[in-house]
Amino acid sequence: MTSTTPSMAPAAAATAPASQPARLMIDAPARAFHWLFALSFAGAWITAESERWRGLHVTLGYAFGGLLLFRLVYGLVGPRQARLASLWHRVSGFGDWLRNARAGRIDPPRAVTLGMGAAMLLLISVAAPLVLSGYVGYVDWLGMEDAMEEVHEFFANSAMALVAAHLALIALLSMLRRRNLATPMWTGRAPGAGPDLVKANRAWLAVLMLAAYAGFVGWQTVQSDPGVTPATQGERRGGHHADD
User: Fold this and answer.
1) Contact status, residue 75 vs residue 83, Cβ threshold 8 Å
2) Which residues contact 60 (CB under 8 A, 6 or more apart)?
3) Is 239 part of any domain?
4) Is 74 within a domain?
5) Does residue 13 sit within a domain?
6) Residue pLDDT, tens place only, 94-117
7) Model-level pTM greater than 0.85?
8) What ranges in the chain are assigned the alpha helix state H?
9) Structural domains of the chain, count
10) Could you report the per-residue pLDDT of 153-197, keeping only the tens digit for each?
C-alpha cells in the first residue's frame, strides 16, 4: 500500500522567502573611513568650545587630518569605486542634467544624487583648510592664533553645513527611491542582481585603520592635559622660572 502523505518539501520551498540579491558596492576601508571621519568631526565639533576637553578636541582634529590624508591616497590608488575621479565624474553630470531640465526632462533623483556628490566633494575640499587653520592656531605660529581661530571657525561651520546638506539629501533620495540608501555604507552591499562592483572587500585594511585610530586617540587622550596649548605651556614654564 502506497503512502498518501503529501511531501512537505515543495510547500516549504514555496513559502520560504527568497533572499534578495545584493552586490558589494563599497569596500571595508572606504566604509571605515566614512564613519571614523564622521566620528572625528562630530567629536571635535562637540568639544570645540570646552576648555576641559581641549586636548580631546585637538586629538580628534589630528585624527581627522590623518583620515583625510588616507582618503586622498586611497582615492588615487584604491579601487575604481573609491577613486576621487569617480566622485568628480558624478558631479560633472550636472551640466547634462541642467540641459535635460531646460528641455523639460526633469529627473529629481538624479538632481539629489548630484547634490550629494557635490556636498561630499566640497566637504573633502573644506577639510584641509579646517585642519591646517586649527593646527596653526593651536601652536600659535607667528602670533596668528586669533586670526586662525576665526578662519578655523569659518571652515568648521562650512563643514557642518555640508554635513547637514549631505544627510538631508540622503534622506530625500531614500524617500524618492523608497529604500534606505545609508545601509550600503554599513554593509557595503546594495540590492541588485549581477556581479560585485568591488572585487575585494579588504577587511584587513579596515581593521588596521580601526586599530590605528583607537590607538592614536587613546594614547593622545591619556597623554594630553585638557586646556593646555603649547603657548600656555610656555607661559607656565615662564611662571615657574619667575617663582624660582
Assistant:
1) yes
2) 40, 41, 43, 44, 47, 217
3) no
4) yes
5) no
6) 777 777 777 777 777 778 888 888
7) no
8) 9-15, 28-46, 54-77, 84-91, 94-102, 108-139, 145-177, 183-187, 203-223, 230-243
9) 1
10) 999 999 999 999 999 999 998 888 888 888 888 988 888 777 888
